[in-house]
């Protein structure tokens, strides 16, 4: 983007997108007035309103979920285009107000229980989040030079870790066939995004330059570099010990953050929207804590959706977002990201999954579960 | 002429309009801000060129063959007056390392000025793609006089259909990779306005992609007229599918022999076609329709992008010059199995495609045969090449049917 802004030569009505058939958060919020007000603004790095909304214009609606329809190109996007982002954040995050403050709590000791989810039902446990490195623009906007600088800094930080976090980095563009096979078998490898939600936002540019995967030798702590966010941090293991997964998650994250801070590139965070990430849906904790759990009976129960909603949980297929469940095994995770802390969100997963497994057992015995259905959390 | 001047002075882009040395439409003396255009507006950058240079080691496209670190360093700080940058121009080539069957171009133009501002890269790319054509020294001939075509009626036992297509861009508006929604809508308005003025056998109707009914959509599909949102990453990575289907549409005449696509890969794609082998009539209608549309837009003060060295200016450098692909669907079951088939096509300056168009396979020995060249030869020359070539192929097929041998023709001379 440059100083010479061609866009100003036409009137607002002439540039305003046709959103009449659209169903996403951006389309619901963007009026001609807001567009007119923000269209001649740019963040310091040159990200414009049209850049912010392109993915939402190009993708009218997702069949199953209400997509956000906009992205940030840098930390400042959330400020410069406040008038657009604030109502979207409110819609997406349960009425979160521009004056609200977000609480961050990565002290794993504050989690109660979580080490005893029944492994006969809970096949695996996982916690992921994202982090953005301060001082750089975000994946929709980064140039190759910036992306490479982010990779270099991230690799420096990650390869300096030791103990349970000792590991290795695999750059996408130079991994061997053998390494690639192994990463696929481990379910670690991420692919070039095919979802138009991401490609229309420019996140797949220059693939696979400066993208890569780092994981510890134990294969329980994994970092994706330069996919949808600067960093996606994942802690996982087989079985139901979510407590251990969360401990490793918190400890690992804090170690990494310290190293970035030493290089004067801490993580993007502020007390209003917490950790700043590319997609507004991931603001706050950016945390998705979940399990793969067998619920063949409960999942066909009439009240399944209701139960999930009350527990503030969501279901996905075992392939992740936009996939279907296979053999009654579901991916169950927290629905919230902003307005509650990491500990609180993982607590909801731990408590909720524990309850649902008990419900499943009841249903196996042919008993009713109505009395167990919780009140709205 | 006066109206063209008015258009240019009142043009919303009043800075850096490329010098217009067009086909008699504007005087050669009208050189506006030429130095400013070539120097390009400066771009704010945080990293040195060496840190930004793309990794092209596994790439095989024309852009990758000619983009050196030195050329990148020289051009990366520039932008066209519209703000289009080198990184944007080459993005599609960086994102798409290579096509399995053909060497793709690997870059696009975001506006007419791209061809000037990024000439140091585009000229060698053009030279490679167009068999040695040098834009700095050569001139491209335009000739839309269909009466010059000889023997333009094919044997219809072999030729099933004939078709000629090209593209045209509206001067003063950015091209599909870079245009804003308002610019794209302006292209639609200008072109649809002009098409509404066509008469007689060219009278027709416009079908906007956003407004067409299901019934209209089905009819257009049955007629093989409907174009879809691009799925090829060659196009999507260049940003051509943005805001789909806003301001996209199809116009065709009532007889369904003259068709215009609006805002797909170019501002306009113009197609003349009919069943059977009367290529001369197809080309005659093509030229007549094109000239009439040009006259109609000029009445309103607009014109097509054209220059003496590059001919008609389109989004992809591969379509410069005439932008013309003249072709037939022709049955060549015996010839296509002959090992000399490819060589014969090469020497005749023809290419084969499947009957679904580029990147498809032939079905039942029926091929799409069309001209290879676009730039450095006129429309008349290229269509004559197709006419002569297809007639030769049919002769070969007939000889093979009779059990006679065929000869590989000598290669048609190319410019150095």
UniProtKB/TrEMBL annotation, chain A:
<protein>
    <recommendedName>
        <fullName>creatine kinase</fullName>
        <ecNumber>2.7.3.2</ecNumber>
    </recommendedName>
</protein>
<dbReference type="InterPro" id="IPR022413">
    <property type="entry name" value="ATP-guanido_PTrfase_N"/>
</dbReference>
<dbReference type="GO" id="GO:0005615">
    <property type="term" value="C:extracellular space"/>
</dbReference>
<dbReference type="GO" id="GO:0046314">
    <property type="term" value="P:phosphocreatine biosynthetic process"/>
</dbReference>
<dbReference type="InterPro" id="IPR036802">
    <property type="entry name" value="ATP-guanido_PTrfase_N_sf"/>
</dbReference>
<feature type="domain" description="Phosphagen kinase C-terminal">
    <location>
        <begin position="121"/>
        <end position="363"/>
    </location>
</feature>
<feature type="binding site">
    <location>
        <position position="187"/>
    </location>
    <ligand>
        <name>ATP</name>
    </ligand>
</feature>
<feature type="binding site">
    <location>
        <begin position="316"/>
        <end position="321"/>
    </location>
    <ligand>
        <name>ATP</name>
    </ligand>
</feature>
<keyword id="KW-0067">ATP-binding</keyword>
<dbReference type="Pfam" id="PF00217">
    <property type="entry name" value="ATP-gua_Ptrans"/>
</dbReference>
<dbReference type="GO" id="GO:0005524">
    <property type="term" value="F:ATP binding"/>
</dbReference>
<keyword id="KW-0808">Transferase</keyword>
<feature type="binding site">
    <location>
        <position position="232"/>
    </location>
    <ligand>
        <name>ATP</name>
    </ligand>
</feature>
<keyword id="KW-0418">Kinase</keyword>
<comment type="similarity">
    <text>Belongs to the ATP:guanido phosphotransferase family.</text>
</comment>
<keyword id="KW-0547">Nucleotide-binding</keyword>
<feature type="domain" description="Phosphagen kinase N-terminal">
    <location>
        <begin position="7"/>
        <end position="94"/>
    </location>
</feature>
<feature type="binding site">
    <location>
        <begin position="124"/>
        <end position="128"/>
    </location>
    <ligand>
        <name>ATP</name>
    </ligand>
</feature>
<dbReference type="InterPro" id="IPR000749">
    <property type="entry name" value="ATP-guanido_PTrfase"/>
</dbReference>
<feature type="binding site">
    <location>
        <begin position="288"/>
        <end position="292"/>
    </location>
    <ligand>
        <name>ATP</name>
    </ligand>
</feature>
<dbReference type="InterPro" id="IPR014746">
    <property type="entry name" value="Gln_synth/guanido_kin_cat_dom"/>
</dbReference>
<dbReference type="GO" id="GO:0004111">
    <property type="term" value="F:creatine kinase activity"/>
</dbReference>
Automatic annotation (TrEMBL), chain B:
<dbReference type="InterPro" id="IPR022413">
    <property type="entry name" value="ATP-guanido_PTrfase_N"/>
</dbReference>
<dbReference type="InterPro" id="IPR036802">
    <property type="entry name" value="ATP-guanido_PTrfase_N_sf"/>
</dbReference>
<feature type="domain" description="Phosphagen kinase N-terminal">
    <location>
        <begin position="44"/>
        <end position="131"/>
    </location>
</feature>
<keyword id="KW-0808">Transferase</keyword>
<dbReference type="Pfam" id="PF02807">
    <property type="entry name" value="ATP-gua_PtransN"/>
</dbReference>
<dbReference type="GO" id="GO:0046314">
    <property type="term" value="P:phosphocreatine biosynthetic process"/>
</dbReference>
<keyword id="KW-0809">Transit peptide</keyword>
<feature type="domain" description="Phosphagen kinase C-terminal">
    <location>
        <begin position="158"/>
        <end position="400"/>
    </location>
</feature>
<feature type="binding site">
    <location>
        <begin position="161"/>
        <end position="165"/>
    </location>
    <ligand>
        <name>ATP</name>
    </ligand>
</feature>
<comment type="similarity">
    <text>Belongs to the ATP:guanido phosphotransferase family.</text>
</comment>
<dbReference type="InterPro" id="IPR022415">
    <property type="entry name" value="ATP-guanido_PTrfase_AS"/>
</dbReference>
<comment type="function">
    <text>Reversibly catalyzes the transfer of phosphate between ATP and various phosphogens (e.g. creatine phosphate). Creatine kinase isoenzymes play a central role in energy transduction in tissues with large, fluctuating energy demands, such as skeletal muscle, heart, brain and spermatozoa.</text>
</comment>
<dbReference type="GO" id="GO:0005743">
    <property type="term" value="C:mitochondrial inner membrane"/>
</dbReference>
<dbReference type="InterPro" id="IPR022414">
    <property type="entry name" value="ATP-guanido_PTrfase_cat"/>
</dbReference>
<keyword id="KW-0496">Mitochondrion</keyword>
<feature type="binding site">
    <location>
        <position position="224"/>
    </location>
    <ligand>
        <name>ATP</name>
    </ligand>
</feature>
<keyword id="KW-0418">Kinase</keyword>
<keyword id="KW-0067">ATP-binding</keyword>
<feature type="binding site">
    <location>
        <begin position="325"/>
        <end position="329"/>
    </location>
    <ligand>
        <name>ATP</name>
    </ligand>
</feature>
<dbReference type="Pfam" id="PF00217">
    <property type="entry name" value="ATP-gua_Ptrans"/>
</dbReference>
<keyword id="KW-0472">Membrane</keyword>
<feature type="binding site">
    <location>
        <begin position="353"/>
        <end position="358"/>
    </location>
    <ligand>
        <name>ATP</name>
    </ligand>
</feature>
């Amino acid at each position: 983007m440059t100083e010479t802004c061609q866009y100003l030569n036409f009137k607002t009505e002439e540039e305003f997108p046709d959103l009449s058939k659209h169903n996403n958060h951006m389309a619901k919020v963007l009026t001609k007035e807001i567009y007119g007000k923000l269209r001649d603004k740019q963040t310091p790095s040159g990200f414009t309103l049209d850049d912010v909304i392109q993915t939402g214009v190009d993708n009218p609606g997702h069949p199953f979920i209400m997509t956000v329809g906009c992205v940030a190109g840098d930390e400042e996007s959330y400020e410069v285009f406040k008038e657009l982002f604030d109502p979207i954040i409110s819609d997406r995050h349960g009425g979160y107000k521009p004056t609200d403050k977000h609480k961050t709590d990565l002290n794993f000791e504050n989690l109660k229980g979580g080490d005893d989810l029944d492994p006969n039902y809970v096949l695996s446990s996982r916690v992921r989040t994202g982090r953005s490195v301060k001082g750089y623009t975000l994946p929709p906007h980064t140039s190759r030079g910036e992306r490479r600088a982010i990779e270099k800094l991230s690799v420096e930080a990650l390869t300096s870790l030791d103990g349970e976090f000792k590991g290795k980095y695999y750059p996408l563009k130079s991994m061997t066939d053998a390494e690639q096979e192994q990463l696929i078998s481990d379910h670690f490898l991420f692919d070039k995004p095919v979802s138009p939600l991401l490609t229309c936002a420019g996140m797949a540019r220059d693939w696979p330059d400066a993208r890569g995967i780092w994981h510890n030798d134990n294969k329980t702590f994994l970092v994706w570099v330069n996919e949808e966010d600067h960093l996606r941090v994942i802690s996982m293991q087989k079985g139901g010990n979510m407590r251990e997964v969360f401990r490793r998650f918190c400890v690992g994250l804090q170690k990494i953050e310290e190293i970035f801070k030493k290089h004067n590139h801490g993580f993007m965070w502020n007390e209003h929207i917490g950790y700043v990430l590319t997609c507004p849906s991931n603001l706050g904790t950016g945390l998705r804590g979940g399990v793969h759990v067998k619920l063949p009976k409960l999942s066909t129960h009439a009240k399944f959706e209701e139960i999930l909603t009350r527990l503030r949980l969501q279901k996905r297929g075992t392939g992740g977002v936009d996939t279907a469940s296979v053999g009654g095994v579901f991916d169950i995770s927290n629905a919230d990201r902003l307005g509650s802390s990491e500990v609180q969100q993982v607590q909801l997963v731990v408590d909720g999954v524990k309850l649902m497994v008990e419900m499943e057992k009841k249903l196996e015995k042919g008993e009713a579960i109505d009395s167990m259905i919780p009140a709205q959390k | 002429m006066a109206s063209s001047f008015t258009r240019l002075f009142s043009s919303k882009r009043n800075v850096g309009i490329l010098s217009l040395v067009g086909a008699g439409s504007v005087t050669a003396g009208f050189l506006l801000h030429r130095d400013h255009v070539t120097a390009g507006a400066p771009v704010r950058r945080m990293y040195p060129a060496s840190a930004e240079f793309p990794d092209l080691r596994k790439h095989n496209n024309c852009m990758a063959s000619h983009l050196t670190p030195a050329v990148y360093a020289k051009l990366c700080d520039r932008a066209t007056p519209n703000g289009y940058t080198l990184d944007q121009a080459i993005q599609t080539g960086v994102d798409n390392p290579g096509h399995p069957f053909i060497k793709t171009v690997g870059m696009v133009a975001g506006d007419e000025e791209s061809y000037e501002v990024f000439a140091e890269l585009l000229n060698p790319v053009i030279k490679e793609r167009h068999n040695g054509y040098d834009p700095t020294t050569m001139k491209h001939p335009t000739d839309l006089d269909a009466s010059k075509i000889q023997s333009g009626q094919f044997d219809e036992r072999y030729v099933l259909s004939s078709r000629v297509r090209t593209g045209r861009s509206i001067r003063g508006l950015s091209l599909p990779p870079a245009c804003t929604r308002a610019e794209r809508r302006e292209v639609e308005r200008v072109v649809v306005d002009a098409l509404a003025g066509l008469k007689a056998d060219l009278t027709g109707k416009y079908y906007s992609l956003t407004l067409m009914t299901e019934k209209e959509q089905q009819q257009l599909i049955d007629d093989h007229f409907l174009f879809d949102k691009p799925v090829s990453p060659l196009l999507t990575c260049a940003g051509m599918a943005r805001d789909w289907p806003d301001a996209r549409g199809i116009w065709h005449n009532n007889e369904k022999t003259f068709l215009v696509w609006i805002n797909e890969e170019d501002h306009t794609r113009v197609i003349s076609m009919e069943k059977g082998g009367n290529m001369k009539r197809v080309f005659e209608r093509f030229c007549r329709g094109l000239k009439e549309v040009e006259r109609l837009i000029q009445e309103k003060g607009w014109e097509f992008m054209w220059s003496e060295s590059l001919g008609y200016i389109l989004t992809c450098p591969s379509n410069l010059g005439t932008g013309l692909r003249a072709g037939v669907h022709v049955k060549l079951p015996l010839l296509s199995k002959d090992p000399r088939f490819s060589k014969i096509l090469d020497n005749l300056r023809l290419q084969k495609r499947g009957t679904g168009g580029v990147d498809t396979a032939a079905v039942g020995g029926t091929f799409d045969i069309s001209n290879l060249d676009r730039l450095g030869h006129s429309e008349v020359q290229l269509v004559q090449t197709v006419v002569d070539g297809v007639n030769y192929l049919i002769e070969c097929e007939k000889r093979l049917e009779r059990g006679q041998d065929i000869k590989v023709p000598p290669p048609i001379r190319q410019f150095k």
